[in-house]
Design brief:
The protein is mainly α. It folds into two domains: 37 residues, no CATH class; 111 residues, Methane Monooxygenase Hydroxylase, Chain G, domain 1. It is built from six helices and no strands. Helix 2 packs parallel to helix 4 and helix 4 packs across helix 6. The protein is elongated, with a radius of gyration of 21 Å. The protein starts with 18 loop residues before the first helix and ends in a 6-residue tail after the last helix.
Length: 155
């Protein structure tokens, strides 16, 4: 592939390769993703269930690559829908579940950002994207407090 030589590999052998190579090998029928690596409606539904149950609990831990896998899954469903209209229901369901998950997490992150200090345990439950959002919201809340109060915030 490109300037890389792959192989020789045995049938059934598991490999760890860059995603673009894996996608190409799967699309051409030379390989398949492991079932436990697949992101599907069942996985999304279980994450949604866990997030909606969290309620008053602190923010739960998501896989570190959750948003990457979610975007890829939604993109795949959109391309499947273009070929098969019946896949539209799956896409709608996935979008609704994803929207709920993101809304819940944004509310939790906003609350954490406004509260001041965040424990390292809670920080470890956030993905990289969520940590970036937390810092962005925290900076804006601090600026807003400073503008309103006319001095440095005490948090």
């Amino acid at each position: 592939m490109a300037d890389r030589v792959l192989g020789p590999y045995r049938i059934g052998q598991e490999l760890e390769l860059p995603l673009w190579i894996c996608q190409h090998l799967v699309q051409t029928g030379y390989a398949k993703f492991r079932d436990d690596d697949q992101f599907n409606l069942k996985v999304l539904s279980s994450i949604h269930f866990r997030e909606t149950l969290a309620g008053a609990r602190p923010i739960s831990k998501l896989p570190h690559d959750f948003y990457f896998r979610l975007r890829r899954f939604l993109r795949d469903l959109q391309s499947q829908e273009a070929k098969d209209r019946a896949k539209g229901r799956d896409l709608d369901k996935a979008l609704n579940l994803a929207n709920d998950i993101v809304s819940i997490r944004v509310r939790q992150i906003s609350s954490l950002a406004a509260s001041g200090e965040v424990s390292s345990e809670l920080l470890s439950n956030l993905t990289l994207e969520e940590r970036a959002l937390l810092e962005f919201v925290r900076k804006n809340v601090d600026l807003w407090k400073r503008d309103i109060l006319g001095r440095e915030s005490s948090d």
